[in-house]
Amino acid sequence: MNFEAYNPTRLVFGAGSLAKLGEIASKYGKKALIVTGGNSVKRSGVFDRAMESLKAAGVSAVECSGIEPNPRITSVKRGADIARKENCDVVIALGGGSAMDASKVIAAAALYDGDPWNLIAHGQENWAIPTQALPVITVPTLAATGSEMNCGAVISNDETKVKSFVSTECLFPKVALVDPELTLTVPKDQTAYGVCDIITHVTEGYFNGVDGTPIQDRFAEGVIINAIEWGKKAVADGTDLEARAQVQWASIVALNGWVQAGVHMVPPVHMIEHALSAHHDITHGAGLAIVNPAWMRFAAKSRPERFAQFAQRVFGLTPDGKDDLTLAMEGINAYVLFLKEIGCPTTLAEVGIGDELFEQYAKDAALVVHDEEGNLLGRPPMNEKDIVEVLRTAL
Amino acid sequence: MNFEAYNPTRLVFGAGSLAKLGEIASKYGKKALIVTGGNSVKRSGVFDRAMESLKAAGVSAVECSGIEPNPRITSVKRGADIARKENCDVVIALGGGSAMDASKVIAAAALYDGDPWNLIAHGQENWAIPTQALPVITVPTLAATGSEMNCGAVISNDETKVKSFVSTECLFPKVALVDPELTLTVPKDQTAYGVCDIITHVTEGYFNGVDGTPIQDRFAEGVIINAIEWGKKAVADGTDLEARAQVQWASIVALNGWVQAGVHMVPPVHMIEHALSAHHDITHGAGLAIVNPAWMRFAAKSRPERFAQFAQRVFGLTPDGKDDLTLAMEGINAYVLFLKEIGCPTTLAEVGIGDELFEQYAKDAALVVHDEEGNLLGRPPMNEKDIVEVLRTAL
Prior knowledge:
The structure is a homodimer. Chain A has about 400 residues and is an alpha/beta fold.
């Protein structure tokens, strides 16, 4: 257990807290760039309420709209150009993970003279890791990525079909303004994909961290148990504010560094999913619902006792004389049943992906997070053949 | 669930990390005030190692030693005077909770012209809550108070026999440098009192927070389960570095705001214990071992289902048709058994406290944290008669 933990983002959480946006933003400047995705924030009235709050606090705003579900580096460039041209002091992300991730990189790119793609890890020798950024305020409208309270961002390059990440301290949002009311209108399928994303953030560390982290284990299990319980409720009734609040809270703690402190996690499932969604415009959470169980079945073989613990503590399954691997597989089956119950796809066929590009995905997945032999980091490390094997079981 | 969460302290955790002190301190200045308690850091060689690390990094240091186990405002004044006279840039706490708490208030008092006692809550009308402080680095040598990574401090006034607190953002340490090796020499009794302190920080929020915090419940239970498991090991064998590291980590998460985020905790047990240890020089953790079970038996009567959950999830007890209150009491009994097993006192008689000043303690306990009628805040709120009743059951 040797590690650092640091997260200076101020979290302001609660139903109705959107009304505080102007007051909060005014601490960081006079002019804001508001980064949004599709039209849902306009239709729901959230955009107008945000603008009113800013106006009342004397903060003017320009918009960078149309951030894609898998945000592209071209959109980051566009946003950074607006921020510079309009002399914006602060970047406000109003949307899901894509708007938040784009906002962080826009905030860094606005203060960086080179090509913004240099800021993103993609196997280049001289990765220009950002050292400064405009202040960012995140206002999530979806409970999923946890991007609201961490310093990571995932960006896609449509030209090279590479989807990769950056994670560095200057990208921590100053404030995460989290109002679960904003998620009340999220459709059932996106709600479910969000829940799957939340759970996968936790399972990555739980299954791919170091040994000897029993407190973090309990934290992780607690988040998963509640994401399952309240996720079902939020999918069943989108207007259930308590369920929405619990899922939103789970999304934050799943990836703000608390559950993973000292775990030294690596995220093989995310790396494989990124390779898929760089080539196919599937929702990240849906991709995870397909890849994670397939990966779990593969990984359980080399560490059945860990997956048996998952089966017992998360799903309340009992050993009853079974060996660890049998119990482990029962736990994974229970997880797949849950994913199906909330309407997630669990096979590649369901999202129309075949095996044509498996070799390419396997190569892309190990592009950045790999060991000296080029194996994708994780427990166990995976070579390209392993990744193809996992994908094949997900067909 | 409406709340804010914020903790900008950088945690550097791990065996051997004391060697990083100089490098870390040099980021905050050229001259440090080192605040220490008794002679244990000298005897153990920790003080010399800290000085060497500082020297190697070009940081000079002056010392403020002799901070009492229940740190006094007179010591804070003394430390602030040294810091001012010697133009210290940074305050380094090297010791247990008392050195850390004193350091925070010294750091604020060094930049405050009035009487430092004004900075501490004690029922005064114009509480001078600190707004600025010198940077503080905490280096705990005991796993107990959690002061290393939070913005709170508890200070005693020997003249007025009042022990009270301050908690405000400018008192967050810049860095918590936590090296579990430094706790290897802590004696059995102090180790046990520390474990009791850790658990009580968590139970305060668990039993006195708002309803509807299921994720935080799991976090709290996870900390308690592990503090019990690893606490026993650390008491049994003080040289067990893994046990020391787990207990140290439990102490941090028990009171750095993660477990309590959104819980809106109030700490009635701490308030009652502070009233005791203001009049008697007992170790805070030992006082908590006495007061907490007595308080739990009192509070369980008004919310048995909550204490039944504690019995089930922490101690694995099963309802088997019992009513909640019966199960609750069994859980509290299990907790008392654990306290006895690690050698904590669980009655006032064991520490030589009688009932002579019960009325006074009851009055002191509700001095700051009270409702409009003067009741000590908690679930349930307690009037002076209630507090006396709890103390009487602890005789």
